[in-house]
Known about the structure:
Blueprint: E1 2-3, E2 6-7, H1 8-39, H2 46-62, H3 68-89, H4 99-121, E3 137-139, E4 144-146, H5 147-169, H6 171-181, H7 183-187, H8 193-215, H9 227-240, H10 245-265, H11 273-284
Antiparallel strand pairs: 1-2, 3-4
Amino acid sequence: MEIFGVPMPAMMSQLLLGLVNGSFYAMLSLGLAVIFGLLNVINFSHGALYMMGAFLAWMGIEYWGLNYWVMLVLAPLLVGVFGVIVEKTMLRHLYKLDHLYGLLLTFGITLLVEGVFRSFYGVSGQPFQVPDALAGATDLGFMVMPNYRAWVVVASLVVCLSTWFVIEKTKLGSYLRAGTENPKLVEAFGINVPLMVTLTYGFGVALAGFAGVLAAPIIQVQPLMGQNLIIVVFAVVVIGGMGSIMGSILTGLGLGVIEGLTKVFYPEFSSTVVFLVMVVVLLLRPAGLFGKEK
């Protein structure tokens, strides 16, 4: 069976690949959206922290003898702790300044983190084995689906939708939003706003670390693995609307699928289709698809 002249297995394989890439786009752009939407900071170090999560998982398995499942929890926590230290020591002094200062600081952190890992491991990739429980593939009849890639999609959706639910539909989320809009009023109710802001930043960067651990068995772990990806993720955030949680999730998944289909019909255009979509969206709706017009 063919679709537009393309065999069904090839079409479905590219759709799955696009959905996997879209899952990474969604999770990384979600972290950026959480940090920008609640803290008003453009976190350019997100790609480096994604790489840090992958490397910490690899180090935990290679040096400490831990397994994938332990590092899936531990590596994001360690990245989150690193983010908390950065927020408490450097970033919190820039909240009242122009966005450019935060951008420059996080760009500097990117260069520092990548430089440290390059000094120890160079630029060659480190192999990362798929966990035994997720090895192999499942024959669905119309295609063979690798088990690990299916796990990536499911795990990403669960984490993304859970984050959206907490921020948008719970009392904790309302405290977070209120604390960033009117911190003095929220503090009057006995809520520690600075601590809440610090933990929010730590959670946002932990999402990047979690995405890095998920990506590690699919791509080789190396110090520059976040450089190209973060550019695409920023485009996803802009298209979805800066600060829009659900916008980042839906746009990330959607653009991943569009990118996958483009590889089927016009492969040469697949690396630029995201940026073309961004240009069109900004021309028609400058605030993004889900952003609020001011």
